[in-house]
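ERR on first pass: missing label on line 2. Operator R.T. fixed the label and resubmitted. Corrected input:
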Amino acid sequence: DVKVTQSSRYLVKRTGEKVFLECVQDMDHENMFWYRQDPGLGLRLIYFSYDVKMKEKGDIPEGYSVSREKKERFSLILESASTNQTSMYLCASDPVGRGYSNQPQHFGDGTRLSIL
Amino acid sequence: AQKVTQAQTEISVVEKEDVTLDCVYETRDTTYYLFWYKQPPSGELVFLIRRNSFDEQNEISGRYSWNFQKSTSSFNFTITASQVVDSAVYFCALSEAGTALIFGKGTTLSVSS
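pass 2 clean. output:
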């Protein structure tokens, strides 16, 4: 069965810290995504990766970077965490690469990040 | 530009009631895809259905049914005889061919016993 695993369900960090959110998928999927979910705003795309070392900015990339050194792992990095980055972060993947595929995405359980 | 509107922020029903979740979309493309996802309290979004713009057939899957109407740009979702386990946040989403998925803001459904 399809599995997307996010390293932490809950995380508390301090303002100014460098924060890493990790996501691993075991389905050999090409595409991976990071979303941010906030009440009343739905899900918003932060970054998208369609291959190892390849990435594209989503709607709200400011304050974030990503890393994809291996196909199965996609990391979201908060370079200097700020309180307005307190949110739920969701990782997803889909099987068709080389660009947005319009295929159903498989999601992880989410990481609820609090920045104090 | 693409847009998805879920006008109902929260809906509360009692078990066994039928409930319809509304989704209205905007797109200028002729080829596009519509999705529904369910997010239970555990947090993981679960894919429910995908429909492409050329297939206007309604679909039924158990207690779930979907009504796609291009004339009104709507893709509504009905749960028949709701159950407590249906309590979740439901998201409608849209993607044009080769573009990112755009989500609505979600509808929180609460089903009480």
